Amino acid sequence: MFAQLAPSPSPSPANLSHFVNRRSFRKSTVAVSASLPTANSARPPIQVFGGKDLNSNVTKKDGSVGFKLEANEDEIDWMNLESDIRLWTRALRPVQWYPGHIMKTEKELREQLKLMDVVIEVRDARIPLSTTHPKMDAWLGNRKRILVLNREDMISNDDRNDWARYFAKQGIKVIFTNGKLGMGAMKLGRLARSLAGDVNGKRREKGLLPRSVRAGIIGYPNVGKSSLINRLLKRKICAAAPRPGVTREMKWVKLGKDLDLLDSPGMLPMRIDDQAAAIKLAICDDIGEKAYDFTDVAGILVQMLARIPEVGAKALYNRYKIQLDGGCGKKFVKTLGLNLFGGDSHQAAFRILTDFRKGKFGYISLERPPL
């Protein structure tokens, strides 16, 4: 079944846990500062520091009205797009992935968390909301945390500033990193040590000898945890590859004499109820390939890109020489398969997803901060 664009129903706040705001696309950058929360806050916030209607009606041959995706304006209603993504996913096979190694290590990770002085939570900068584990707050409690948005090279400066501003309103500053090139890694190491600096002070007060600060790096699969550790150590200690599920066991490594780091497997909820988030995980390669149908996911990606002004239907045509007929992304994928891959839609879908993951469409964020 094609994932065909349809009119957006009135969104229900209860169903839009990740809805995002309308934002003008501008060229200027904004410096962001954050004030730390007060000690009287009802809920201790994460401690994080550092860091860089487009539809037009189309009458079909049978007289029915469809929709043509045109990205020819300067802004987009992200709340409506999020609602449409949920609508598009209803007809698709649910995206679910919970391999045995995650089930096996989740209990062990919760035990290891009790030993940690600082927890470094890594998310994908393209989808910071969708790479947030629903149980993270319950697991960590009041423990000191550092929030890292990795792959900063894959989003624009405007997106980066918008997310920094969003977290600043919560008393949070965020570290943006690039695990491949190492940007932000040194700042992350310094911050981990500084947040846990009072550990040995308290130990001395109790007459205990000093010890290394223990920091755990956790997050969804393939968000760049192992690459960050390798950058911190300046050598390849942890296995890292551009696919989910490479790290299957927890591993402690030493960073100098005063910091121990725990590399952990990517953690996912046993069941992903938010299928809009699940589709974005698949698009960004943050979930196993067996969890989804490539043609379905690429079709939705095409429909999303056509709605994002930085890309639009024109950019899709310029790259693949195919018109987005009637706004149907899956039909676009099938046509590309016929034109380039002898009718193989799977290969066509893989090409589109790979192009997005390699930044061939530019600096693209698939989420915006909530209102």
Automatic annotation (TrEMBL):
Record keywords: GTP-binding, Nucleotide-binding
CDD domains: YlqF
Organism listed in the record: Microthlaspi erraticum
Keyword Transmembrane helix annotated: no
CP-type G domain span: 106-270
Any one GO cellular component localisation term in the record: mitochondrion
Annotated Gene3D superfamilies: 1.10.1580.10, P-loop containing nucleotide triphosphate hydrolases
PANTHER family linked: DAR GTPASE 3, CHLOROPLASTIC, MITOCHONDRIAL RIBOSOME-ASSOCIATED GTPASE 1
Domain of life: Eukaryota
Protein name: CP-type G domain-containing protein
InterPro entries, sorted: G_CP_dom, GTP-bd, GTP-bd_ortho_bundle_sf, GTP-bd_ribosome_bgen, P-loop_NTPase
GO biological process, one term: mitochondrial translation
Signal peptide: none
Keyword Oxidoreductase: no
GO MF terms held by the record: GTP binding; GTPase activity
